[in-house]
Amino acid sequence: MNQQTDKAILVVSFGTSYEASRKATIEKIEQDIADAFGDHRIYRAWTSKMIISVLKKRDNYIVPTVKEAMEQMIADGIREVAVQPTHILDGIENHVMKEEVLSYKESFDKIVFGTPLLTSPEDEQKAIEAVNSEFSDLKDPEALVLMGHGTTHQVNVVYAGLDKKFKTSGHSNVFIGTVEAEPTIQDLVREVSAFQPSKIYMTPFMIVAGDHAHNDMAGDSPDSWVCQFKEAGFEVCPVLKGLGEYPGIRAMFVEHAREAIASM
User: Fold this and answer.
1) 178 contacts 159 by C-beta, under 8 angstroms
2) Which residues form a coiled coil (predicted)?
3) Does 256 qualify as catalytic in the annotation?
4) CATH number of 121-241
5) What is the per-residue pLDDT across 208-239, written as a single tens digit (0 to 9) for each?
6) Are 128 and 187 in contact (CB under 8 A)?
7) pLDDT of residue 1
């Protein structure tokens, strides 16, 4: 990191209380961005105040909020900031983060934002390729089920669109649902049952493999996704790996940061 520069990249993530996943995902994304932009100082912020609080109490591990990171950059003499979120969609979380950042705009010469993971048809195609390369050894009758988070924001339609795009690009054995919106687990069980796979691999379509992946997806309770598919008669193999572990996904965030810096 260049300590002399007045240019910075702020990498903003939701956060996770799972240390192993943090190191394999968020920290890898931050490192890839740092490696790509040696002339910028790299800062971090998380948007989940609950997770920040849990880590501070449990591990004495301190992560700044967006406001704290902005104040630190002002103290460090930063003049130009590119903000790169590791959010999947440009939903509520991303909008709130932008408002917080822009409340400090008088203190900087320039602030620009990189886009979240999926904001264009090209992004969707690259994400599909990144997922397919991670699961390239899927055999013909096997299926891959991806668990997205889901949002009440209208941008949630991206999940259904991506599901369709997988299928139109020759991957009829890939299915996407969400924990908190649509498509639901009930939609998925219906669709996957019609496909009749010999085995189902299931993995989070989220940056980290955190609470949703460990509990809602792969947990022991009857309403977890793994249990619901087993109940429907399928052999299920959960893969607890966040999208931040996929080199193709991390490369997309680096590219989004590059586009933001180029727009300054």
Assistant:
1) yes
2) none
3) no
4) 3.40.50.1400
5) 999 999 999 999 999 999 999 999 999 999 99
6) no
7) 56
